[in-house]
Amino acid sequence: MLDKLSGVWAPRPSPGPHKLRECVPLMVLLRSRLKYALNYREVIMIVKDKAGNIKIDGKLRRDPHFPVGFNDVVTIMKSGDSYRLLYDMKGRFVLHKIDEAESKYKLCKVVRHATGSNSIPYIVTHDGRTIRFSHPDIKANDTIKLNLEDNKIDGFYKFDSGCTVMATGGNNVGRYGTIVKTEHHPASFDIVHVKEANGNTFATRKQNLFVIGEGHKIAITMPKGKPYKLSIMEEKAIRAERKEKAMKEGAH
């Protein structure tokens, strides 16, 4: 997201709900991606404004270094635009514009399920939320659909064969498809095989996958483009086709 010719310094995310290497500072989104600001000073003026211009997951944020991670919803109050932070097929963060109805919920991966004091069950999600009295069928690696207006669970998706998952870690970040099978390896990592829309398969660790839908029905809208990763030769052919088309248009 940052220009390689702009220097060696970059804004560091504040401590928050996401890990350092799995998030991007709010400042980078506003300045480098959405182009709402030209420099650091303008970002400060936007974020620190008394009216409250930026909401993340339905909460006003005034920290320009606030960490924004996978599946977070960024809302610009004055323009009314909402964006969801996702990965593209090459594992890069991409801001996907969503409508008002979709901006009212987000998907959260369950990273821990336990029982606290007084035998109260609770779950911990990938963005640091602790939710008490969760449904007894919700376990680790499942995904919940969280309502951002009242912070309640509207539904959940089980991690099982046939569900749609996206890779959020490892060498296949950004790729998504349906689970074919899971290999269980005692005292090691479970390996899951995922099949993409074009029939290609890839394997990754179980903890690298994030359930985004039940069956072939995805709970969120995805960035535009083909729903599978292109090979190097396919990308080369597309570039050549674009170049040829541009040359023809220039000749006319």
Low-confidence stretches: none
Derived from helix and strand composition plus strand pairing, the structural class reads alpha+beta
Helix and strand element order: EHHEEEEEEEEEEEEEEEEEH
How much of the sequence lies in strands comes to 25-35%
Shape: globular
Instruction: Give a short account of the largest sheet.
Output: 6 strands, antiparallel
Task: Using brief descriptors, characterize the structure shown.
single chain; 252 residues; 6-stranded antiparallel sheet; alpha+beta; 5-stranded antiparallel sheet
Write a brief structural summary.
The chain is α+β, with helices and mostly antiparallel strands and 252 residues long.
Question: What would you say this structure looks like, in words?
Answer:
It is a single chain. With about 250 residues, the protein is an alpha+beta fold. It contains three helices and 18 strands. It has helices at about 25-35, 40-45, 230-250, and strands at about 25, 55, 60, 65-70, 75, 80-85, 95-100, 105-115, 120-125, 130, 145, 150-155, 165, 175-185, 190-195, 200-205, 210-215, 215-220. The chain is globular. The mean pLDDT is about 90.
Give the SSE layout.
Blueprint: E1 23-25, H1 26-33, H2 40-47, E2 54-56, E3 59-60, E4 67-69, E5 73-76, E6 81-87, E7 93-98, E8 105-115, E9 121-125, E10 130-132, E11 143-147, E12 152-157, E13 164-167, E14 176-183, E15 191-195, E16 201-205, E17 209-214, E18 217-218, H3 232-251
Antiparallel strand pairs: 1-4, 2-3, 2-5, 5-6, 6-7, 8-9, 8-11, 9-10, 11-12, 13-14, 13-17, 14-15, 15-16, 17-18
